[in-house]
Amino acid sequence: MSEITNDMETCMDDTLEMMQALTSAPGVPGQERAVRDVMRRYLEPLGEVQTDHLGSIIGRKVGNADGPKIMMAGHLDEIGFMVTRITDEGFLKFQTLGGWWSQVMLAQRVEVYTRNGPIIGVIGSKPPHILQEEERKKPADQKAMYIDVGAASRSEAEAWGIRPGDMVVPSSSWTEMHNPRLLMAKAWDNRFGCALAIEVLRRLQGIGHPNVVYGVGTVQEEVGLRGATTSTNLIGPDIGFAFDTGIAGDMPGIGPDEAAGKLGKGPVILIFDGSLVPHTGLRDLVSEVAEQEGIPIQYDRIGGGGTDAGKIQLYGAGVPSLVVGVAVRYIHTHAAILHRDDFDQAARLMTAVVTRLDTAAVARLRS
Predict the structure, then answer these.
(1) Is 221 one of the catalytic residues?
(2) In the chain, how many domains are there?
(3) How far is CA 149 from CA 33, 92, 168, in A?
(4) What's the domain range around 275?
(5) 74 and 196 fall within a common domain
(6) pTM, two decimal places
(7) Beta-bridge partners for 74
(8) Which of 121, 136, 170 is the last residue of a domain?
(9) pLDDT in tens, 269-319
(10) Co-location of 192 and 299 in the same domain
């Protein structure tokens, strides 16, 4: 018994280490190399690895080489910023990459990734003390913000290696909270999905499965689902899953019609998002497997925005596709929170689903 327990604890520690490595890596849309390198390190022991020409990474594990192709995609990129201009006084103007709400940006620490290495900075704007009364009532204007890296002039900032186009990411350390099952980090949207794709491939090691499974980290999801398009074209899947974050609704002031997912209550199946009305047969199959395996699941919808499944479904004559995720608090901020139990349950669910997707099952779904 002790040997089995020790093996399980080692596996859990390895998964936690992987999750931390993925969230800690910097990677805004179009500059995902560091995250891709982390994902490659974990994919290479599990099967063949390749990339598309935009930079999405694809791990391939063969169960039955003649079976259907199952695509499971998380996205590598996180929301962040790009330096657009250095002012004469040494401040950095920037472009947002992905959806930012201005109220969560001010006074936040960031890291500017220069050719000489990262430099810490802070997002600033006029203090409220000198704003007119009407200005104080309005959300802060992103166009008025800047990044202060402590440079005294443009020439000094340039001497430090800063130039337009440099990546800027939130600065937020990985934190296991007082309840260690709650994990706080930047970029859970969507390094969680990348970790889940890897974890499912890990759990399939040594298990017969009637298909070929692709664990994918896509690029540029936050700016238009671009990597999902190119990686899907490369794979040509028969079934598609996007692993993406759900919006947690278990916080003060949020009603069940706004967000239904709760931390610690199981994986979330999205029944609608701005890019996808999911395939009902695939949705029902996943729900049935969850019931058979005793895995609690939640259902939710996201009225705005889209997911990689929205692009996967459009490949060729159409691909039955679904979004499976976990509820996450404070997505699109510097510090998001997810529940480790939800991740583990999602991995167990998707491993069980994959083992049931044989040629006959996929044919029924596509008929």
Answers:
(1) yes
(2) 2
(3) 24, 8, 11
(4) 2-78+186-366
(5) yes
(6) 0.94
(7) 217
(8) 170
(9) 999 999 999 999 999 999 999 999 999 999 999 988 899 999 999 999 999
(10) yes
